[in-house]
């Protein structure tokens, strides 16, 4: 288990109080430092924890105070799980303890039958494959803790309902009222012990609707049947007094009151009511008149309480289900955003090594056309990967946009050839671009990517060919609403003649990873990325579509109020001797593969490079030997982040130039450092440019 990048983000834990304040995470990871690392990450997630040294101790520690359980797969691989299974089976109805299983690489449930079997035994299981990013572990742990908090909330509500039911039952017993229900579809009768006693039956005796009807005095049966039928048909309440004949021949009087209960569709499903022994009242009606009046009031009140109680296990259940659906959707979007940003960050690091080595390899094979062609193909593939990470980071809102004045007319004109090649010869591309449109405030690269995505979507919607119409117009939003502020906008419209979408599909179109394309033919990130881009630009993506009438996508982008800066031509890559001479550079990266690639770039530029693979090792180099002209460090490193290293280095050498390289285009929130930054993957030219800026005389 690896704690790599555990300091990648500055988490501010604001965990809400849960009904069970002593709830903790239970850890069973007997090998290595797994238990210590898991406890540390749980603490960072705001969750207290305790560890069990063996499986027996783990089972003994399981109780309602456990918020979640963290177990390594190897600890369960050959263990007897019957005790755990028995505990899980015996959980209260409100409880479904979440388990987090740490598996080895390739040991997830999709590829490991043993891991899949754990899901059957443990039930509520999340799998995390090692090595993993600390952000992933913390996200899963927090999601599990939130789920447990909802279970504690459910327990409180169930206890409150049980208490209400007990109070109602106590009130019925105090009034010697028997409660009963009759299912109209099956004639199944449910009665309380008090109700049975009114008909001369013991609490444990069976008492069916047939038994009840047979106990009615023969002279009263038709009257009771008529009242029953009238209530079932009309829905009106009924109150019937009739004689009952006990099995010993004793004749007594009973009063029965009932109301018709309907389901949500209005269908009559059961009769709910109370019964009372009124023998004494009938025998001495004059003396019992006042008691009889009080009894009628109490019967009506108890009947209303019973009806209200039933109307409330239904209203609360419906509200809870709606709330849980909304919460699950919010959690899914949160988890997808965190996972997407983490994947993009790690992918950028991998692309750093690929692109750097390819650039250097291309210099070595200069003059070999076949080798250059192969390397160019690999470079194109790697750059497409970098483009995908931009989409992912834009969706996760972790991409640093380079916003400035953009001429959309010129942008579309420059992309005309690319668009036509992308959509193919069966699609006719028409453009309508008015003169003198104002420039918009946007990131030109991201707008190009968004337009290309929309064009490809339109192409896929017209498999038999058609016309793709791209147009620009200036619009004014007179009043602010939930998505757009009042002001001027330029609208980029992309309209196709494809099959279109129904309303349900249109509502899901901007959800991440949702796609109507076949498996392998789309990531489902295109429209969600454009939606995220529009939000970042303080604009809006509007979609309209009808089956058989095609789809129109409108990207509303605010008009720019800033003056456009002139574009500077890229300078050729100068060797080190023309950048003020070779520099002595300290390169810090815990990933040996990336460090090796970056070091080769620097050596190729003519610089002297010293590598360090941790913040501690870097500080040792800075404290001894010849001085360094520059330190280049990764940000996400275990033990000490690049930000912490930079602060420590500045304390030793206040004038040392520092360049932080990160898979994210921006540092995490709350990191305030006055250092240069370079996003991964970077080219040798970008690296040389930064070195020149940082080491040139001021």
From TrEMBL:
Principal EC category: transferase
Entry-annotated residues carrying 4-aspartylphosphate: 634
Pfam families in the record: HATPase_c, HisKA, PAS_3, Response_reg
Segments forming domain Response regulatory: 584-695
Gene Ontology molecular function, alphabetical: phosphorelay sensor kinase activity
Location of the Histidine kinase domain: 342-561
Gene3D superfamilies: 1.10.287.130, 2.10.70.100, 3.40.50.2300, Histidine kinase-like ATPase, C-terminal domain, PAS domain
The protein's name: histidine kinase
Organism encoding this protein: Rhizobium soli
Lineage of source species: Bacteria, Pseudomonadati, Pseudomonadota, Alphaproteobacteria, Hyphomicrobiales
């Amino acid at each position: 288990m690896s704690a790599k990048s555990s300091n990648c983000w500055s988490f501010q834990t604001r965990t809400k109080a849960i009904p069970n304040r002593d709830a903790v995470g239970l850890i069973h990871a007997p090998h290595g430092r797994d238990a210590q690392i898991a406890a540390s990450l749980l603490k960072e997630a705001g969750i207290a924890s305790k560890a069990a040294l063996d499986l027996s101790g783990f089972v003994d520690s399981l109780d309602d105070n456990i918020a979640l359980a963290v177990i390594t797969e190897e600890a369960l691989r050959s263990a007897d799980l019957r005790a755990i299974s028995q505990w899980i089976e015996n959980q209260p109805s409100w409880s479904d303890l979440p388990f987090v299983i740490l598996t080895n690489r390739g040991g997830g449930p999709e590829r490991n039958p043993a891991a899949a079997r754990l899901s059957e035994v443990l039930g509520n299981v999340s799998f995390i494959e090692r090595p993993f990013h600390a952000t992933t572990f913390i996200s899963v742990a927090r999601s599990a803790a939130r789920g447990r908090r909802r279970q504690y909330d459910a327990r409180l509500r169930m206890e409150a309902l049980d208490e209400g039911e007990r109070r109602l039952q106590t009130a019925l017993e105090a009034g010697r009222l028997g409660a009963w229900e009759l299912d109209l579809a099956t004639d199944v009768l449910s009665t309380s012990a008090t109700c049975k006693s009114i008909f001369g039956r013991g609490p444990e005796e069976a008492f069916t609707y047939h038994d009840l009807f047979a106990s009615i005095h023969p002279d009263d049966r038709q009257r009771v049947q008529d009242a029953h039928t009238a209530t079932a048909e009309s829905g009106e309440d009924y109150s019937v007094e009739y004689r009952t004949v006990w099995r010993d021949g004793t004749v007594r009087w009973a009063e029965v009151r009932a109301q018709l209960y309907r389901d949500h569709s209005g269908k009559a499903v059961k009769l709910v009511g109370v019964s009372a022994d009124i023998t004494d009242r009938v025998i001495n009606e004059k003396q019992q008149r006042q008691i009889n009046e009080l009894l009628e009031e109490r019967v009506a009140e108890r009947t209303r309480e019973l009806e209200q109680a039933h109307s409330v296990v239904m209203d609360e259940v419906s509200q809870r289900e709606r709330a849980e659906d909304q919460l699950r959707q919010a959690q899914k979007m949160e988890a997808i955003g965190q996972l997407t940003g983490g994947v993009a960050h790690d992918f950028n690091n991998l692309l750093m090594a690929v692109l750097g080595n390819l650039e250097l390899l291309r210099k070595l094979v200069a003059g070999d056309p076949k080798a250059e062609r192969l390397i160019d193909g690999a470079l194109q593939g790697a750059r497409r990967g970098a483009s995908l990470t931009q989409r992912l980071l834009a969706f996760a809102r972790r991409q640093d946009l380079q916003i400035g004045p953009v001429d959309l007319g010129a942008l579309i004109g420059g992309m005309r050839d690319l668009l036509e090649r992308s959509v193919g010869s069966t699609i006719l591309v028409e453009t309508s671009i008015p003169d003198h449109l104002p420039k918009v405030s946007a990131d030109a690269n991201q707008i190009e990517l968004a337009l290309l995505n929309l064009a490809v979507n339109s192409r896929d919607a017209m498999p038999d060919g058609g016309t793709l119409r791209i147009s620009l117009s200036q619009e004014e939003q007179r009043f602010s609403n939930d998505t757009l502020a009042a002001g001027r906008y330029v609208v980029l419209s992309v309209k196709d003649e494809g099959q279109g979408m129904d309303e349900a599909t249109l509502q899901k179109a901007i959800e991440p990873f949702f796609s109507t394309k076949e498996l392998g033919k789309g990531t489902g990130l295109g429209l969600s990325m454009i939606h995220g881009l529009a939000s970042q630009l303080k604009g809006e993506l509007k979609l309209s579509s009808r089956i058989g009438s095609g789809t129109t996508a409108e990207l509303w982008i605010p008009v720019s109020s800033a003056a456009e800066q002139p574009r500077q031509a890229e300078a050729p890559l100068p060797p080190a001797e023309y950048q003020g001479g070779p520099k002595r550079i300290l390169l810090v990266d815990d990933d040996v593969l990336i460090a090796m690639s970056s070091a080769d770039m620097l050596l190729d530029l003519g610089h002297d490079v010293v590598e360090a693979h941790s913040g501690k090792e870097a500080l040792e180099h800075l404290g001894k030997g010849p001085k360094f002209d520059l330190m280049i460090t990764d940000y996400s490193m275990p033990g000490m982040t690049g930000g912490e290293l930079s602060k420590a280095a500045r304390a030793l050498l206040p004038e040392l130039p520092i360049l932080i390289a990160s898979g994210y285009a921006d540092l995490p929130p709350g990191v305030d450092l006055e250092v240069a930054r370079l996003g991964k993957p970077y080219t040798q030219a970008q690296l040389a440019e930064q070195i020149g800026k940082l080491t040139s005389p001021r």
